[in-house]
UniProtKB/TrEMBL annotation:
GO terms for biological process: phosphorelay signal transduction system; regulation of DNA-templated transcription. It holds the Pfam family GerE. This is DNA-binding response regulator. GO terms for molecular function: DNA binding. Residues 147-212 form the HTH luxR-type domain. The modification 4-aspartylphosphate is found at D58. SUPFAM superfamilies: C-terminal effector domain of the bipartite response regulators, CheY-like. CDD domains: LuxR_C_like, REC_NarL-like. It comes from Planotetraspora kaengkrachanensis. Residues 7-123 form the Response regulatory domain. Keywords: DNA-binding, Phosphoprotein.
């Protein structure tokens, strides 16, 4: 990503921490800080108005917390990659972040190199965790359970779109089935392959079918 400028926003209720990240991003040529927020509501507003490539989101903030804000961001601005910031490195927090659609999770005491590595990976659409939580993420992703849906990095709506795509629905049929506009569906179809590590839509369909999607089993019906 050295040749590409990554537009990043930071949501954290600690001014000193935000200032530290600002100084870090100002020191590298490929990252531009485009906004900051101190609450989950402000983070959501940033996501839907500024559309950063990556949003660093503190998991604990006043009002709407980072997990709830991530869920809303994934629904309203699916092109924004959310990376969770936290001091907590337990299985439950990592699992919750994955369920809400975060594509990365990094401890707030990570060094600068690690923070930049996670940010750049998120901008490429990759799922990456900081070293401090990698062992938890690996255990969660590899142990699995039949009850957990595939592709935890996707939001429920993204998973529904992928499910219908894997069932050979075209854009118009997906839009009708999920009560979305065709433009919104096209946006999802652009974002989803990158988020699951597929080079293109056809590869995403192949991965989805291998994971059991496209069979019509559990498709939510979305009202708007």
């Amino acid at each position: 990503m050295d040749e590409v400028n990554i537009r990043i926003a930071v949501a954290d209720d600690h001014t000193l921490f935000r200032d530290g990240l600002r100084a870090l991003f100002d020191s590298v040529p490929d990252v531009t800080l485009v906004g900051t927020a101190a609450t989950g509501d402000e983070a959501l507003e940033l996501a839907v108005t500024v559309h950063p490539d990556v949003l660093l989101m503190d998991i604990r903030m006043p009002g709407m917390n980072g997990l709830a804000a991530t869920r809303r961001v994934r629904a309203l601005a699916p092109e924004v990659a959310v990376v969770m910031l936290t001091m907590v490195d337990d299985d439950e927090s990592v699992a919750a972040a994955l369920r809400e659609g975060a594509c990365g999770y990094v401890l707030k005491d990570a060094d600068q190199e690690e923070m930049l590595r996670v940010v750049r990976a998120a901008a490429r659409g990759e799922l990456l965790f900081g070293a401090g939580v990698a062992r938890y993420a690996r255990r969660l992703l590899e142990s699995g359970s039949p009850a957990r849906p595939p592709f935890p990095q996707l939001s429920e709506r993204e998973r529904a779109v992928l499910d219908l795509l894997a069932a050979d629905y075209d854009t118009a049929r997906i839009a009708a089935a999920l009560h979305l506009s065709p433009k919104t569906v096209r946006n999802y179809l652009t974002v989803i392959p990158r988020r699951i590590g597929a080079p293109d839509r056809a590869a995403a369909v192949d991965l989805a079918r291998r994971a059991g999607l496209g069979r019509g089993g559990n498709r939510p019906t979305w009202q708007g």
